[in-house]
From TrEMBL:
Organism this protein belongs to: Symbiobacterium thermophilum
Molecular function via GO: DNA binding; DNA-binding transcription factor activity
GO biological process: negative regulation of DNA-templated transcription
Keywords in alphabetical order: DNA-binding, Transcription, Transcription regulation
Protein origin, superkingdom: Bacteria
Species lineage: Bacteria, Bacillati, Bacillota, Clostridia, Eubacteriales
Matches recorded under SUPFAM superfamilies: Chorismate lyase-like, Winged helix' DNA-binding domain
Domain HTH gntR-type: 8-75
Electron transport is among the record's keywords: no
Protein's recorded name: GntR family transcriptional regulator
Keyword Transcription among record annotations: yes
Length: 242
């Protein structure tokens, strides 16, 4: 159950609890209880439940069917490991296209258990939450949700993020050089809120990427979830035989 005396926000506790429930006792496409049922079961407000469900949707654990309810996603079980560094900006430049980034939101929060594990920080640690739309020649290509540990980037501001590409900012303003990134990717379908921003119909094919980036000291400096348009975005990998 939830601990209302804990310094960890209730919605973060609820996210962790629902993730454990999904992983241990639910199958893909199983329906989740309604918002009202979750409120009653755990003694929390509808605002708390909605915040938790938005987080679960962003993390790929659930999906919504308009007018029908919320269901367990199969996608979190289907991730494939890939060790490869990727830069959207550099990729688009190599293709002769003009990259553009629109910051949709930037806020500071606390890490729930799942995010904390990804970032290798303590649960409840302060994190930045950055949502961006990536475009090439004016066309929406990718949506990104990035979590960044505050203690490695104290004083990070929206103005800084708007001044230069994120990876350049890491190096030039915070002396955080990227050494490598672990990436997972899998096929998926675009959800309602993503479709509007990407300019494609709901249910269109997309490529989802989950990237964990490490600095020169092998410390995690970001965790990013991306959804890329399958009709415009090509992901190339070169494997070398050793």
């Amino acid at each position: 159950m939830l601990d209302k005396q804990s310094p960890t926000p209730l919605y973060n506790q609820l996210v962790d609890l629902l993730i454990r429930t999904i992983q241990t006792s639910m199958k893909p496409d199983d329906p989740l209880p309604s918002e009202r049922e979750i409120c009653e079961k755990y003694g929390v407000s509808r605002t708390t439940v909605r915040a938790a469900l938005r987080e679960l949707e962003d993390l790929g654990y659930i999906y919504r069917r308009h007018g029908k309810g919320t269901y367990v996603s199969a996608l979190w079980k289907e991730m494939k490991n890939l060790s490869e560094f990727y830069s959207f900006t550099e990729h688009m430049k190599q293709l002769g296209m003009k990259p553009e980034t629109r910051i949709l939101s930037f806020e500071t929060g606390v890490a729930n258990r799942s995010t904390a594990e990804r970032l290798q920080v303590a649960e409840g640690s302060a994190v930045y939450r950055l949502r961006r739309l990536r475009l090439a020649d004016g066309m929406p290509m990718m949506l990104e949700l990035t979590f960044i540990p505050v203690h490695l980037f104290p004083g990070l501001t929206l103005e800084m993020l708007q001044s230069m590409p994120l990876y350049d900012l890491y190096a030039k303003r915070f002396n955080q050089e990227i050494r490598y990134a672990d990436e997972e990717f899998y096929a998926s379908l675009v959800q309602d809120k993503e479709a509007e921003l990407l300019g494609v119909p709901v249910g269109s094919a997309c490529l989802r990427l989950v990237r964990t980036t490490y600095n020169q000291d092998n410390r995690v400096i970001e965790f990013t979830l991306s959804a890329a348009r399958a009709d415009q975005f090509v992901y190339k990998i070169r494997h070398r035989r050793k």
